[in-house]
Structures are given as structure tokens and as C-alpha cells.
Amino acid sequence: MTDTHIAAIDAAPAEERDLSTALMHGWRRRCPCCGKGPLLRGYLKVRDTCTVCGEDLHHQRADDGPAYLTILIVGHLMAPLILWAFVKFRPDPLVLTTIFSIGTVALSLYLLPRMKGIMVAIQWAKRMHGFGGGD
Q1: What is the mean pLDDT of the segment spanning 82-102?
Q2: Can you tell me where the transmembrane regions are (predicted)?
Q3: What is the pTM of this model?
């Protein structure tokens, strides 16, 4: 084989990975590749490899992305609800603060690991940060 032929083989596009399927697996906190193995070990720690299919997951670089997404979603949901509750029912400020503080914390704790799964799934589907094979 010539060097040009080898370069053409290396430049061939890799098979497409289905983003929507990967996102659903990430939302469920499952391996973005097989959808069966658990993605997380503990609350937010991503496993180094999938226990079912052996996919390397240590490449992920979610960093602060899940926290930013969680804050964005929770803020956009809770702010209108607080306004609506205050205008409609006029509760005591301490009651309003207590109820919405508990709601905000509960929603944040629910969404944070799911946002982490989504961030890892996007990186896997788009072959970012080493998920592409020999990148």
C-alpha cells in the first residue's frame, strides 16, 4: 500500500453514533455505548470503564458543565413558580422561603447526576476528548 492510500483509510469518517440514544442512556445514568452498565460509581463519579461492554469512560471531561446546566434549569423553573405562588397565595415569606428552598435543593439533587450523564453521553456520541478511538 502507498502512503496516500493509508492516509485515505485513516481519514475515513468513523461510524456515526446516535446522539438521541446516547442522551437517553445518559439521562438514565447508563453507559452511553451499551445502555446497560451503570455510568456512575457513587453520586457523581464516572466509572473508568463500563462493567458490561468495557467501553472506556475515563476520557470524559464534564467538569462544571452539569452544575451550570442544573443551575440554569432549576433557576428557570423555580423563579416563575416563586412569583406565581407569591402573587396567587401571598404566603408568609418564611413559608415561601422554606418550601422553595426544599424544592430547589431536591430538584438540584435529582438533576445533577442526570446532567452529568448527558454531558458524558454528548462527548461519547461526538467522539470528543478521546472517545473517538485513537484521537
Answers
A1: 96
A2: 67-87, 93-112
A3: 0.85
